[in-house]
What does this fold into?
Amino acid sequence: MNPKLQWLRNKMNSLDMQGIIISNPVNIFYLTGIDAEGTLLLTRKENIFITDARYIEHVHSILTLYDEIIVYDIRDISKDDYENFFLFCENVGFEEYYVSYANYKEFVRKYRINNLVETEHIIEKQRMIKDDDEIKSIIKACNITDACFSHILKYIKPQMTEKQIAEEIDRYYNEHAEGTSFETIVASGENTSMPHATPTDRKIQEKDIITIDMGCKVNGYCSDMTRTFFVGEVPEAVKPVYDLVLKNQIQTMQDFKDGISTRILSKMVENDFRLNGYDLVHSLGHGVGLEIHEPPFINYKTDIPLKENMVVTNEPGIYIPGKFGVRIEDTVQITKFGCINLTNSEKNYIII
Amino acid sequence: MNPKLQWLRNKMNSLDMQGIIISNPVNIFYLTGIDAEGTLLLTRKENIFITDARYIEHVHSILTLYDEIIVYDIRDISKDDYENFFLFCENVGFEEYYVSYANYKEFVRKYRINNLVETEHIIEKQRMIKDDDEIKSIIKACNITDACFSHILKYIKPQMTEKQIAEEIDRYYNEHAEGTSFETIVASGENTSMPHATPTDRKIQEKDIITIDMGCKVNGYCSDMTRTFFVGEVPEAVKPVYDLVLKNQIQTMQDFKDGISTRILSKMVENDFRLNGYDLVHSLGHGVGLEIHEPPFINYKTDIPLKENMVVTNEPGIYIPGKFGVRIEDTVQITKFGCINLTNSEKNYIII
It folds into this structure.
């Protein structure tokens, strides 16, 4: 059996769970490599993937005998089959944060499970700690992101629209990686004051401030980087804000290490921003992996100790409504005694 | 108040519901035009949108006084506020197909609701019937899709990869619309045998069969069209399959009208395919609107009468594993006595 399924079976044993229903496609991909619609069942004796005719051929092309996964076409499963899957299971787990209330009720009815139990993100928690292969994929995605950013700095010319720049980034990522890991953000001028701006037809002008938030995928794993930079010169009004954001981004990088609390990290930046009359309006960072946003989330609401081989972003930002915003973001690997910055593009004033 | 919120309030009255929690962002956009993360609450007297600092500015730029929606920053809401929102509500609805089991439990705890009731897709059911503005947007998206297909037929040259063709479609849609409505499918040669193929580095060759499934968005509304076509000539082995798919696509178009059952439509195509030794492996069609796949679904499992001003796809397909596949798909508006085909690209043998 593949090591991730074996890990899950051991975990289930320790939790007195005899079966589990995995519905979240990201968790299914993590455990099995299958990137197709369907449901993964771990019953007492078998690993079963239920899919439909559209995906049967594709799924068979991914799996090997070694995976020990039986593939079923959903049209071939009878009412009795469903009731037999978990026949002698006392406790069967399900993903209560992914499964809708309606599906929960459907599970109880269809599988006739005695005790359908919440699994409290067991797979997501394991996914927070990346293994060597996962880190290699993320590093590759980060390297491609640095290269794409270098390329785009040379590519941008006044009169180009935000949309055109975003398209070039997307094109680059389609050519060099598995496409983008989220919708590319290119914001210029006053549009930078919105943390989640979508690219518009606004044209780049002299003395503009530009924020680009970009990332790609390699083997399904994401990168995430933001830079704020300038056309021609750095406006005087922006300098103190940029310096404050950068100072906090570098300070956070120095604080990142195994054991430090996500809440303390976030509070330190928030306090420094407030001392200067600004606010930290979004999370300081988030985990990066198969999903662009995944646990751990680094903000005032969470209090999780970072752990070795978590991969997280470090992205303080300040936004002044109607005027401008500054965000600087890197993807970072946590280590025992510090961290390794995986995106390495310039962070001092960049002027194009 | 905007007419869609007014409709929902009337519907709530008729269902003896004094409040409702809307979490699905597509439903929030449908009802309010807000395209931001957050939760919409309709309480006894107020319409409330709870979001966070990232979106406050953007949301205020969308809403007018006429909308009668109060916007809250989630950080300003206290425990007591949550408990007061639905204080005198007996029954409060929630979207049981969208809300996770964990969130359902959180709602009960946080809002202290006496009776949190399932709403059985009330908004999705209303969304199935499109109003004039919605149909106009879909028609525009369909026209752009026809134009994009004409463009791409001229664009494709032997030795191009599937990925290159998909990128050109995406670029076209980014330029002429709000981008794609789903991940463009370009499959060639034996790759066409997978209904949900993703574009690969396979190069287009002489005598290839090519399937392209494409669509874009206008004002948030989707189009969806598939054509299967040929390089140089139509292989003899493909002709009978193509003819059978096209015959059923045209027959379905003639059967589409107010009142006909989705199950009967699907069964008729399935029967004809089986008579000829093939199978209908995916749905015959699906609703199209703010989502690329939305109710009604046209397959053997559903039994819904089509209604005037539903917009659905008509997409029979036959797939021969390891060899080739043929799918022909249009986006169609149902009328009282028939239907209007909104995508009008050629369906007879297309040879490039």
Observations:
- Chain A touches chain B through 33 residues (CB under 8 Å).
- The two ends of chain A are 53 Å apart (CA to CA).
- Chain A has a mean pLDDT of 96.
